[in-house]
Amino acid sequence: MGVSCPKLITERLAMVPMTVEVVEAVLDGRRADTEALLGAKMPSSWPGRALVERAFLARLDAVRADPEHRLWGDRVALSRDPAPRVIGSVVFHGGPDAEGLVEVAYGIEEESQRQGFGFEAVSASVAWAFTEPRVRAVRASTFTWHLASRRILEKLGFRVVATEDDLLGEMLKYEVLPSAFRR
Known about the structure:
- 31% of the residues lie in helices and 26% in strands.
- By secondary structure, it is an alpha+beta fold.
- Helix 1 packs antiparallel against helix 2.
- It is globular.
């Protein structure tokens, strides 16, 4: 089952749509199948099942039941090298709600961190989201101690709109409107 969102191309990344088949292969630990589906080499330690389950905030049966909504805008970031490799992913936790809000989340594999890939991937994905007429604002959440994630969001124009306590510390709730979004 494919999901109808376009592939995005940035300077260094090809952002390919996430599919139910890719999610299933990752959750089942079928590395060779995942690599074949993506046409790219997976990092040795990423993603793990726990990361994928947290990323989607839904059980696999919910993703299977409504992939157009659950995988809305979700993409895997691949390097544009001659031998592509998985750099990370950007997901939206589902399509726009009744108020036109979507929530973005992202992860970059360890060896590719601190090289600007997170900014590049999130920037392209949020820019795409704002081309969708139903999207009024994009939200994101991160911990106060996650400085790299905070820098990405703030550089893109996201502003803190709320905080909440979490088991792992204070969680910052960010939001950006199209008029404030910076690439």
